[in-house]
Specification:
This protein is 32% helix and 25% strand. It has 262 residues and is α+β, with helices and mostly antiparallel strands. It has a five-stranded antiparallel β-sheet with strand order 4-5-10-6-7. The protein has a four-stranded antiparallel β-sheet with strand order 11-12-13-14, with helices on both faces.
Length: 262
Amino acid sequence: MYEFAYHRPNSIRKASSLSADGDAKFLAGGQTLLPTMKQRLAAPDALIDLAGIEALQGIEMKGRTLHVGAMSRHADVASSAVVREAIPALAALAGGIGDPHVRSMGTIGGSVANNDPAADYPAACLGLGATIVTNKRRISADDFFTDMFETALEEGEIITKVLFPVPRRAAYAKFDNPASRYALVGVFVSKRGRDVRVAVTGAGPCVFRVAAMEEALSNRFATKSLDGVSVDAGDLNSDIHASAEYRAHLIGVMARRAVAAA
C-alpha cells in the first residue's frame, strides 16, 4: 500500500466537502476499493470513510416502502426481520453475496455505487424498481445504472439510502461462480400490481431488464409463459467462465427458477 490521507467524517455534509479536495474516494465496505488500491489499479490521494455517519445507517419500513441505509452491511440486510418480512427475496439475495467475511464488511451503498456487472444488488434495485437516494437528489434504478462500473452519480454525490417498494411477489435466482460467488447470471423477478420486472446481472456489461419476459409474465405470471422467450447472445459477456451463448441460456433457466420461487 502507498501513503494517502484518511478521513472519518461524522456527517454527510462534511464527507461531501472533503471529497472536493484532490483525488479522494469514498470508503463504504472497501471490498472492491481496497483490493484495487493494493494492486495499484486505483491510487486516490485520500479515503473518506463513511462508517461513522449515523445518517447512513438503519433499515425501516415507511408505509409500503422499505428504506435501507447505504451503510447497511450485507449481513444486516440478510438477517433483518424487517427485510425478511417485507421483501424476503432481498434478504435471501444479501445472504448469498460472497462469503461471511464479505457480508460482514460490504455495504449496499458501496455495491450499488460500484455497479460491478456481476454484482447482486443492482439486479434487486432494477428488479424491484428501487429509488437510489443521494445527498443531492433521488434517482430511479432505471436511470441509475448506465454502463460497466458506471452510474448516474456525480462527483461528490453520496448514496444515503435505497428505497424499495414492497412487491406482491419477488425472487432471485443466481448461477454463481463457485469461488467468488459473483453471478455468472442472476435474474431478479418481481410483480407489483400490473408491473412485472425482470432484471439480469452477470450476463452483460451492465445490469439490464428483459422486456420480452416482462411482457410475457404480465399476461400470466407463470414459468410456462416464458416458453419460447429468449435473449440474444450478441450483447452478452463471453469470458473464461462462460460464453455469451451459455449466459443467454442461463438467463432463461434462472428466470424460470425465479418465477417458480416467487
